[in-house]
Amino acid sequence: MSDGDIDPLPLSDGTEALIEAFLKQHGPQRNVRPPAPSTSVLVRYLCNALPATEARQVEQALTASSETRRAVREVRLLLDRLQSLSWLEMAVIEQNISASSRSQWSLSSNQTAAIRGESSREAETAQAWLSLASQPLQAFAAEEIAPSAPGTDSWAEIRRRARGGRAQAQALWITLLAFGAQVQTQLRRPLPALARDSSATLSVYGPWAGECRLQETRIDAAGTLHVSATFVGFADTPATDFSGWTAYLALPAGGEIFLCASSTLTGEQVSWTVSEIGVGIGPQASAFPARGLVVLLGPPERFTLPVPSLRRFSQSLLAEGFLIASAEPPTENEEVVGLLAANILTIQGRESSLPPALLEVVGPPPHAVNGRLQIAVRLPAITRSAYAEGYRLLLDIAVAPQEWQHLDSWPIDDWGEAARTLSISCPGRTDGALASLTLLRARLAPSEAGSPNVS
Amino acid sequence: MNEALAWKRLSLPEDHAKAEALEALCRSLRAPLERYLVAKCQAGTQDAEDAVQDAFVKLSRLSDVNVWPNEQAGRAWLYRTVKTCFVDILRRKGRFATIPLEDFDTFDVPFAERGFVEQVQTAILLGEIFHYADAFWLGLDPSFSAATYERQLLVAQMYYLEGFSSTEIPRLLGCPPAEEPEMTPDRVLAWVRDPGVVRLLAYHQLCMERQRLLACLFGIDVDQISPDILNGLWSRALVLPPEESALGELSWGLVALILLRYRDNAPASAVLTQSPCREWGYTEAQIQERIAAIKAALPFTSVMTDLLERLEDERVDAESILGDSGLWKRMAFQYWYCEELPLFDVYERIQPASDQVAYKLNTNMLNTWLSGGQLRKRLVKCWWDQSGGGYDE
């Protein structure tokens, strides 16, 4: 780096002198050190539950003090341990904290992850996390994002609002990230051989019998998804009949869909741009698989969906067999309301390279009644045959962006064909239906495995 | 109506065409302008909304809209104007003072240069000039915001100073704002090996403001130091015997000398004539001996040694990166304009560290950089050029 060749601006001596004086008068002072954040603020920072301005203050405090940097690591480790406890054990902690006025508390169980609360930081971390975990996630249903102009993205807008501290947007952002995690898991499933050939075409939901051929699907370095496609009729002729119609690009996962962008067809061409999607579904190869995408096509005058809209079409899509469900027909009275792809963990509690297993959620959508979350789960035969022996099903729930709380685990050795209703004690949690099935994370772990990696 | 058409129609004589054009521009530019103020100027949401509103009011009142030859020029005007409106809002709140007209007269600023001076003033008040100084001399990415520089610094501190791993660090950081890059282990590694980020870390370790330096010299935690504590020490040093033990190995005499030199910025040559040294009856030689002892205790050499040890990474050539003149220019600029240190004190704080990476600094160089205004002139020129005349959308 050399600034030796720069000729200064030809300014008068008076201007130079005034700028010199002004710089000295208004140069930023570094004497003001930001105050060290409290433990509860650090918990909210790590869980992305702070508005952007407060998060920045925390980061300024972190740059100013080595002690604060060590504190944030300590809080992260405590959070990891708390997140691996079951909800019931969390409730015990809560009672202990209340009973001992936060000074001294400990878990009564012999959990390896037991947190003894010997320091106030442990108690404060637990209390802050419990307070976050108890917040209901149903709020997002009321969040309406105005229909976007063609090609604009609303995911980024939600993120911006969430970082601005708006509770509904935060709830929606949590949901979208959880949805992204489910998409990411589903994309790891190998396709049946017959389906592979269709990777260059997009599935279209609407009055269209021809093909929607992909021209480009890629996620760039900034995490933006670019998709362009052409509608092609019989004999490979360009289909221009739908010019001017609205085409929504959607991500399906677990029986729900997320409408992530809208665009208007120009002739037979359509293209979408969805920024921030890389945050939701994690780093992908630059090419995004076409099977992760669905197009919903309709005339503009009666096809104005709010974007995004979760669950809006899920039931009808499932009913028409549009979303891929299990090959097995559901047992009588066991309507499949959604699918969960479960990552397989290693004995060390890390994600293995095995393809994820599929679970079906049946009956009424998951809901909480009297402090118990009820979920009916069916294991397809292929999952049972691969993992029945020596594996446990672990269920977690999204509590903050990319932060999960473990709910409970169940051995799956003796699971039969029928669905099982899992009843999970969640004291303190608001009753009602879960806003989205993808707020749940399922994993299969060897029974003798240690605590799962919560990340 | 697209934006290019809207800018064209703004110059039409018909009122309704103008109103439509304004509405279209407002619809397409309002949100990006607000985001720009929040990201670049750290404006609050409410202030950003108000500033953008004010800018559009100004636009609607402009009678001669033909001044913009094209869409880009129109946008440039809007981006400059929202910044000015934001500064005006801060002024109304009493945060900033404006340049009084008499200042222009006192400094004999030609009328033709007053608009330029006001733009430089806005950039200084909003912290843009100092932010650009980081990019310019340390070699950071100029497209990143101040918040991203802070994250880069934090990542480097966690990696090199605390020894956290590249996989652990993303989990210790909250999500960045929507405009900022996402943290991944790969990005952590890319950042900590970026020469600009390494210089940024060195700059923050070595460039010590008054309070941090005093904390080091007194052996007190920097968070424990406050003006009240320093005043208390000073009051005691005035009345207690100078050879009596005060803080650790420091006597009250040395405490007083440290406060005179590094809190009050008294030049070494002037200390002898100041209270309480005058009353103690020390000779000049005795004072010089003590000042030399304090100078030997300055932390810059040890901080640099420690930093070089921590920067031992096969992919980072620390000596070459830190041997670049940019780091030392940035420090000199900071000490001169923000700490208002005299030239020899700037030298005293930089030279012990720069020597260790074979960067030979001397007072003549500093004289040209600072007293001659070379650093300021080059920085302002480059800031002006890169921002397209104060416009950096």
The span between the termini of chain A is 41 Å
Main sheet record of chain B: 2 strands, antiparallel
Q: What is the number of E strands of chain B?
A: 2
Order of helices and strands of chain B: HHHHHHHHHHHHHEEHHHHHHHHHH
User: What is the element string of chain A, with H for helices and E for strands?
Assistant: HHHHHHHHHEEEEEEHEHEEEHEEEEE
Beta-strand fraction estimate of chain A: 15-25%
User: Which word captures the global form of chain B?
Assistant: globular
- The amount of beta strand of chain B, in percent, is under 5%
Keywords:
heterodimer, A: 455 residues, alpha+beta, 8-stranded mixed β-sheet, 4-stranded mixed β-sheet, 12 helices, 15 strands, flat, B: 393 residues, mainly alpha, 1% strand, globular
Description of the molecule:
- The complex is a heterodimer of chains A (455) and B (393).
- With 455 residues, chain A is an alpha+beta fold.
- Chain A is built from twelve helices and 15 strands.
- In chain A, the strands form three sheets. In chain A, strands 8, 9, 10, 11, 12, 13, 14 and 15 form an eight-stranded mixed β-sheet that branches. A four-stranded mixed β-sheet of chain A has the order 1-7-4-5.
- In chain A, a hairpin with a 5-residue loop joins strand 2 and strand 3 (225-232).
- The longest helix of chain A has 21 residues, at 167-187.
- Chain A is flat and about 85 Å long.
- A two-stranded antiparallel sheet of chain B has the order 1-2.
- In chain B, helix 2 runs antiparallel to helix 3, helix 8 crosses helix 11 (195-206) and helix 18 runs parallel beside helix 21.
- In chain B, a hairpin with a 2-residue loop joins strand 1 and strand 2.
- Chain B has helices at 3-9, 15-41, 45-61, 71-92, 101-106, 114-125, 128-138, 146-161, 169-172, 185-192, 195-206, 210-218, 227-239, 252-263, 268-271, 277-280, 284-296, 300-310, 318-322, 325-337, 343-354, 363-371, 374-386; strands at 245-247, 250-251.
- Chain B is globular and about 85 Å long.
- The mean pLDDT of chain B is 86.
- Chain B is an all-alpha fold and 393 residues long.
- Chains A and B meet through helix 1, helix 3, helix 4 and helix 7 of A and helix 6, helix 7, helix 8, helix 20 and helix 23 of B.
